[in-house]
Amino acid sequence: MDFSALLAGLDPVASGLVVLCIVGVTGLALGSVKAGSVSLGIGGVLFAGLFWGHLGFSVDPEVGHFLREFGLILFVYSIGIEVGPGFFSALRRSGLKLNGLAVLLVFLSVLVAASLHLVVGVPLPVTLGLMSGATTNTPSLGAATQMLTSVGAGPDAVSSPALGYAVAYPFGIIGILITMGLVRFVFGIRPEKEHADFEAERAVNRRGLETINIKLTNRNMDGLTIGALPGLAEMDIVVSRIMRDGVVEIAYPETEVKVGDLLLLVGPGDKLPGMVRILGTRAKTDLKAVASDVIWKRLVVTNSHVYGASLASLDLLHRYDATISRVTRSGVELTPGGNLRLQFGDICTVIGHPDNVDRVAVLLGNRQQALQQAQILPIFLGIALGVLAGSIPLAMPGMPAPVKLGLAGGPLIVAIILSRLGHIGPLVWFMPTSANHVLREIGIILFLGIVGLKAGESFVPILVDGDGLYWLGYGALITIIPLLIVGLVGRLVLRTNYLSLCGVLAGGMTDPPALAFANAIYPSEAPALAYATVYPLVMVLRILAPQVLILLFWF
Asked: Domain boundary at 311, 338, 366, which?
């Protein structure tokens, strides 16, 4: 059977989808092949597109344009939803040093790429592709392609970034591994010692919520209400239970305490010893283990009527005779102060009598399955808002014409903002991890498949007869120079833990295979935690970087 003839007999949409599926299947199979811990991953789709494009397979231009842009929108929107909740928290003091190193890595990549364009004369579209491939960042390639289209670049210029990306990508992966090895060799680092140092520092800085049982012996506190006890509000500590005469009850703010009472306190571990000095002595009895009618359950917030409601407004103590001792949000335990506002997916530890806890469960929703369901309406609304935001002309000083965020920047920024807000009324911008992964993978396969098919027409001639070998060297410079500088600065100047530094290098290149390599150096959580800390900010900067270069050098 003549497969080409069969495709020619189909309408453009059907033909394009068949070709794209072929590219996707072969690309995913290629990306799954591993050499040690390293693989092409989703980048295999681009190389499969280059292969099939070289053989003459193609997609109707109009169909291909829609699939490419729609795939890019799905991809960057999904990324924004994923990184949004942690984007701003990653910029706080605890992650400031690591994010500073990551920002330096991105800046140096842009600086080296811009220097190659200005000094050596590498065409700007090729430079953008080399930078994307050298930093193993596919969203950057998407942003460059879309931005070139928005500024009116011709077809050859729009397809050039994919060629540069494909040439530079392989060394982009290898260069990170080389840098990790060089830093380890130059400084004579022993990973087991780095792990021990990391765990010791982590133990000092850990500030989770803990519990403590205190026997009230300070007679100055006798007769005071729990709400009037000094130090509780200032230290973000709550009294969840009280035992008197062998009976355990819920602690109310207006409950009077007496000498000899046992109190169960919940709060930051480093603050609780201070309350012992104020109230009395540590009790040997654990109130959580004392048999009583009081129970505790973890309930998840899924009822839209309580989204954004403060704990003070819910007044669970007086309305339901129950209390919340802690709230867990995105893995972080929060002290349940009255001003704390609930969000979808919050896990509340509720204490009370069984019937009352069940009533609170109805109030909060407590539908575990809701955490596994994707809400479709907010997805389409968020995408629409992102596309509109990307289409708004923005006047910038020094630019000859207004610029736009485009189909890469608009959906990304809007998704970050919406996911950070969490909800607007009953609309929740939450996407289960599995749904986010599927949407993101489909989007990038659509984008890379179309880009690869288009670039495949000229990839081999450029690599064999053109400037492909020079591009390979330029891409290696964009990869290795920033990595080595950041590795040396991080270790020599900032004294960053080596395992954490490896996570920063992998996260700064948004490269999961490099993270897998870092994890294999020594079994520690340090690389993964550093990777997760810098990933949100780096992903945003990598997407914005090619757009900035186009604004600076295209006009």
From this structure: 366
